[in-house]
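Troubleshooting log. The previous structure file for this entry was overwritten by mistake, so regenerating from the original sequence record. Sequence copied from the archived sheet and checked twice against the printout by T.R.
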Amino acid sequence: MVKQFSGFLVLVALALFQVACDRTAQEESAADIKAEIIEYGVYERKGEFIRIPDPTSPTGYVSRSDKSGEITLARETETVQMAQGVLFGYRVNVINLPDAEQHVFTLRYEFPPMITHEGQTTTSTEDQRRVTTSSRGVTGGIYYMLSEEYEMVPGEWKLTVLYKGDELASKTFTLIENENS
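Regenerated output below.
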């Protein structure tokens, strides 16, 4: 069973989707939807992140980028040194979406067991992002920001983008102790 855990997730990505491809006249099946990871690693943030109340989160809030926030790739890597404020993840290009103005993507985060400040153990969380587009393709990202001490859990962290239950893209990162600690 997936426990709801939002923590200080930075789920900026899909809210910032941009039009990526032109409409075509043909209707395509879900099997025709394709996704390609176009970059991954550790990211830098510019702009402000705001806390949004979320009663399903053990911390009581999630963090999102304001409209002026910009996320840029700092270093391509699958190995991430843990430290508060570190943001990691990937950008993905999705094409051949069915004709629709709005698409719902599920962002799944899986990680080694972590014990929240409330004493609950969790190994995953999911969040849904609604993306409005008049195109059949979008580009966006899935990121996780380490913000709480209890999130500093070394091991494999898997970030997955799903559409209607089907996995479109997935990337595993290995979190390690910070060499400067």
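The radius of gyration is 16 Å. Archived copy saved in two places this time.
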